[in-house]
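Dear H.,

Thanks for agreeing to be a second pair of eyes. The structure we're designing against is below in token form, covering all 329 positions.
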């Protein structure tokens, strides 16, 4: 089985070819950081126009790298939401056009399902059910992944996502864009105990998340002028890690039978987050699975893989499937 995957829901344009046996035959990705940097964040209209220009050449490059034509592909999987609607439409319309022209099935993938199943692409031994911490720029959720298309949401954020908090902190501290990696780099040169910052919802019974208050505290700490950006970054990152661990530990108390603790989404690329989760898993006698960094941030291999899992389960979608800005898993 060979699946072509397309991704264009935010500011990465990507195309990949993945086999049912988990071989990533080709993957191409073009980030748009330079185009958005002057604005300090992703500008939806600029992103959508860039996807239009870049996606078709990336698909051609991926097919050339794999030395196959579209005829060799069994199905075309494309992100159909959630995300910036202009970008989602570019990928979905492209996927539909290819599916129609080559008479191949279309698989409309929920971007969150791409993240949720990506650990199974990285680790063949990862079996259902597993507890997934999905931490990205738009989402912060704890999910019990019970099977393909079977996701039980245990918790979500009541305000900002963890990645959003990283991005806003980077902006406040003038560390640049994209924010997550910039904060992580600055944090390596700072003292995580320097700045007293809150741990919102820590210890509360439901394993939900909240980061808005932490962001406000970062604004106040920066305005106070007492601490370096490096110390604030390190203290902020330590607070986020504490919250993620406390909330995940709470969720672990409420579930039975999970085979592993798994993390995915852009923030899972953060070494401090990964290290702390690995220790938590060890404490609970659970396997810990985290995809490699490039598979945590947005990419098309995870969309192709989610497509492969859905295709194997007999799930395909009609050509009139609509793009969705919001689409809870
Ligand atoms: O999954 P993703 O690529 O896109 C979404 O679906 O949102 O996640 C992007 C988010 C951004 O907020 C980015 O700042 C964050 O992931 N991120 C990181 C790191 N790399 C990316 N956050 C913390 N540390 C990192 N190393
Ligand atoms: Zn994502």
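And this is the sequence the design step returned. I haven't edited it by hand at all.
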């Amino acid at each position: 089985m060979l699946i072509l995957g397309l991704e264009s829901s935010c500011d990465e344009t990507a195309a990949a070819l993945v086999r049912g046996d988990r071989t990533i035959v080709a993957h191409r990705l073009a980030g748009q950081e330079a185009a958005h940097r002057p604005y300090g964040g992703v500008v939806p209209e600029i992103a959508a126009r860039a996807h239009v220009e870049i996606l078709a050449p990336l698909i051609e490059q991926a097919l050339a790298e794999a030395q196959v034509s579209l005829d060799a592909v069994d199905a075309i999987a494309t992100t159909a939401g959630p995300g910036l609607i202009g970008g989602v439409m570019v990928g979905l319309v492209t996927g539909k056009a290819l599916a129609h022209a080559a008479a191949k099935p279309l698989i409309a993938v929920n971007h969150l399902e791409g993240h949720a199943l990506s650990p199974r692409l990285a680790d063949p031994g990862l079996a259902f059910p597993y507890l997934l911490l999905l931490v990205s720029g738009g989402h912060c959720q704890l999910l019990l992944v019970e099977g393909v298309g079977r996701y039980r949401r245990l918790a979500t954020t009541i305000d900002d996502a963890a990645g959003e908090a990283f991005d806003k902190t980077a902006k406040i501290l003038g560390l640049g864009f994209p924010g997550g990696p910039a904060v992580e780099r600055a944090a390596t040169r700072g003292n995580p105990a320097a700045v007293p910052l809150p741990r919102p919802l820590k210890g509360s019974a439901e394993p939900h998340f909240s980061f808005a208050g932490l962001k406000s505290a970062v604004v106040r700490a920066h305005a106070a002028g007492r601490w370096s950006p490096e110390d604030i970054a390190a203290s902020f990152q330590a607070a986020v890690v504490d919250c993620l661990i406390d909330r995940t530990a709470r969720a672990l108390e409420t579930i039975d039978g999970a085979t592993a603790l798994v993390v995915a989404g852009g923030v899972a690329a953060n070494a401090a987050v990964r290290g702390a989760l690995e220790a938590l898993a060890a404490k609970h006698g659970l396997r810990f699975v985290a995809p490699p960094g490039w598979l945590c941030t947005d990419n098309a291999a995870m969309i192709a893989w989610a497509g492969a899992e859905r295709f194997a389960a007999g799930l395909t979608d009609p050509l009139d499937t609509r793009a969705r800005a919001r689409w809870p898993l």
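Two observations from my side: The longest helix spans residues 229-254. The first strand starts at residue 2 and ends at 7.

Warmly,
E.
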